[in-house]
């Protein structure tokens, strides 16, 4: 009798555990990008692919946020609306609804080489995938762009960079306040 109960308890726990496992794998957000490195020539048009798969299609646009970064600079963002920050890139809202968050680069320049990051936030899930773009200039014999690639140190995430920007702007605000305060104190002192 005792033994039977224990077996049953084990079976119930096993069932609960499997159920949890299935739930976890179902809520998985899948993001796939172009295989790195992507090679292009100056002047090319190129699609950097970033596709997302959600467990229950279609994509619920109200729970989705996308960000594309290049060396810490925000290129394009979807957060309730599409916001293209860099005139050299293009993204389509219609394609995004189908899970296609690819970024189109037109007329590529040498300084567009380097790492691109596709951030996908969906409900409580976040994924980041990186694509490394190599740009060759067939009109130049030497390759001089190599050392330009890692201006942004490895592992400095855009979130950290955003924080740095915030701190700098806070600093200027405080600085501004201090200056006006100093001016007021000076006025006080002078009028005495
Ligand atoms: C994804 O969207 C881009 C436009 O942003 C388009 O050029 C491309 O063909 C689309 N890819 C697929 C697989 O539909």
UniProtKB/TrEMBL annotation:
Coiled coil: present as a keyword of the record? no
Q: Which Pfam families match?
A: Ig_3
Could you identify this protein by its name? V-set domain-containing T-cell activation inhibitor 1-like
What organism is recorded for this protein?
Answer: Geotrypetes seraphini (Gaboon caecilian)
Give the UniProt subcellular location, in the record's own words. Answer: Cell membrane
Q: Which residues form a coiled coil?
A: none
Q: Which gene encodes it?
A: LOC117361015
Give the membrane topology: Single-pass type I membrane protein
- Keyword annotations for this protein? Cell membrane, Disulfide bond, Glycoprotein, Immunoglobulin domain, Membrane, Receptor, Signal, Transmembrane, Transmembrane helix
